[in-house]
Structure prediction request, 255 residues.
Amino acid sequence: MDLDERIISRAIIESELEALHGSMDTDVAVVGGGPSGLAAATFLGKAGYSVTLIEKNLSVGGGMWGGGMMFPRIVVQEEGRHLLDQFGIRYRSYSEGYYVASSVEAVSKLASAACDAGVEFLTLMTVEDVMVRGDTRLSGLVVNWTAVGMAGLHVDPLTLACRYAIDATGHEAIVARLIAKKTDRVVVKGEGFMWAEKAESMIIRHTREIFPGLVVTGMAANAVSGEHRMGPVFGGMLLSGEYAASLVIRELSAR
Prediction:
């Protein structure tokens, strides 16, 4: 087969620019492609909303890839087992109420489900600011290539308009912190010590709209509320993503 490098390059550039152009005005922007972000994006996409997922790294999956200390296994408690079933992630019972799954399979199937739901992925992209009009509501995100920040280059960003944003950036709570820097309406308390039971039991309560147009999920939700961290147990992450999607769906459907 004869290959024309020009066709290959043009196909990549044209198709990605088309996707990028379509993502500049989206219903929901999910920032962070870890388990909570992937789950939230999938449920929103399945509900018929346009969803753009922004991930600063080359690949999605967040901390789930590494399982616990690079052992590629994750634990999900009974409350989150239905989500393993829903995403087709195989698991085995370890002890009563605890299930073990492959971290590689879990990330792969979460990402596949998001793709099937029509989620558009923008990888190697970082949110460096937010758009807020009149200090009343988040209306968009200011984005740039991750490499620009790493290199310390002075390159102006572009903007992405959205009706809602979900901060799924984990321990860093990046979007929440950006807003907290410019208004006293949001306070990011930071994480407490490791206490898996308390962190898991409280994560749904902390998954909420902290600023008009911005919902926090996963470890970002716990970081904003000053909650403890939980380590490589991921039921709460998935449940938080599911709940974050339900909050946004409820608000968007009422508009």
User: Anything to note?
Assistant: The radius of gyration is 18 Å.
